[in-house]
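Problem 12. The chain below contains 591 residues. Write out its predicted structure in token notation.
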Amino acid sequence: MTVNLTVEAAGDVQVVKPKTGYEFLIDTLATWHVRHYAGVTGGGVIHLLKHLEPMVVPDDGVERPVFFNVGEYVAGFIPLGYYLASGKISAAIATTGAATRLLTCGLSDAKLHNIPAIYLIPLSPADTRYRAPLQDTSADGADVVAQLRAELPSGTFVLNDPDSIEEQLEEARKQLDQGSPIALLMPPEALGKVVPEPVLTPWRGDYAHKPNRIDHGSLAHFLAEFPRQSAGRRVIVLAGEEAAVYPYMPVLTTRLCKALQAPIVWSINGANAVARNNSFGFGYLGFGGNDRAMQLWKSLGPDDIVITLGFCPDEYTLNFSDIPAHTTWNFTNLTAPYGSVGGEFRHRVGGEYFDVRGPIDQVLSEAIGRLEGLQLPRPPAPAFVADLNDRKILPPRAGTIDIARFYQELDCQWQSGSIAFDDVCLAYKDRQYVTQRPHPNVRFHSLYRGSAMGGALGAAIGAKLAKPEATVFAFMGDGCFRLIAGCLAEARSLGLVLFVLDNGALGIMVQGLPVVIPDYSSDRYHSDLYRIDFGLMARACGWTSRKLMPDLSNLAEIMRESYSPGHPSILVEVPVDAEQVVGQNPRANNL
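Solution.
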């Protein structure tokens, strides 16, 4: 066996030091361009973390891996924001016990949103089984391996053999290639040993998941069948969040709609794949969706054709319904996306179903080039509508902002390159209803499938670590804030901007429960929260704080400050009326 060695200088003498499995793991991840780690130290990860330098300031060009010390719950979401902002991979770390459970809340959302992310989790030493070790991870204790394999059956790797660690990590890399998170479990007795010298293969991580090749068979089938099949039929396009990872998709979806004279709707995150000036745009679909988009989608029938750019199977988009079209063509580059059966969504459609496989931007570009000149006979597209909503929004109570006007005015303030995250609060329902179309200067993301309150702060931190030059915003409710308040201090110097919607309640419950339990009084909602001086808490943690005036008179000033260079993180208190209903919640009817 060839021993893997590092060379350290000691005066004029070079000392050759064997390399352990921990060092090999870090070196391997470095070839995958993993430079940022986040989490908390502890007994199980001390011997890994001792090889990482502390992060001083966000720097996406760091040469050596760095570690950002922040609470495990927040840390678990950092790789998600990191990837959504940059298309690159990062890692989250926790020790055994409760720390692992906190960290893996982010892992769940990574799985549900098909986001590649790395979770490093230690195990108790094998020889301590039956000896009641602290935070026992064995089958007699927490049985962590079984827990993680239940959630990530193909993405959980126990690195328990120094001689095979290289092969295991290569298999793990393939999972990342397919948009899946991985859990790397670290038995100390294995990773503490010297490992064979590896042959490390650099990995070109980018926005598109691999395989980075077009399946020309499925594309040829589409080009042969679609023109004939769609003649005289209405075509509707649904942009899903898989399409949003490709930076030039807004241009392509506009070309597609023009070529097919087809209206387009989009999911909450799929909006990032659509241009605001796409005249065929009918708005957000589903939770917080626009009235015209919902009307269009409900009109679907067995004579229509649907093109999905990344199938969005979730409750917030399709609300448990199937697509009743004649044929559904799904463009995808994922082999086993969340919600699929055998890698397909045939079970979610009423008619025929076909996948067109490969990087969506490449496949779509080639398909559009072939379709643009065909002039296919098709019913005329619905006329452009400037206002995609029909409902009248009632004003709020005195002393609070009008949330609809707030999002309208905010929509005029975005500067280029902004990144924003909606947390599990009224923000992730109301914003899309009010703004109706995506803004070219800001990419909004919502981790709604796992719907973990407070996850937006970790995602925002991850985005800032990946793109230090970007201005990163998060919109969070006062309920969400309670899960992350203890980590504000660690984010004080990052320059984040956190809008806290303060209504003294769990607003989603206030608005949804009259539908779910109409015969019960509001005291049975259990939705009231004690008021907090959020600004005082923020300033105690080294943040700057601002309070938005009910008439929004200082909003422009707050946004100018947000975009000014070199400021500490800013918390903005936003007084909100929990009973002002803006975006709709179709899910309430399912409960």
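Discussion. Residues 137 and 143 are 5 Å apart (CA to CA). Students who got a different answer should revisit the alignment rule from Section 12.3.
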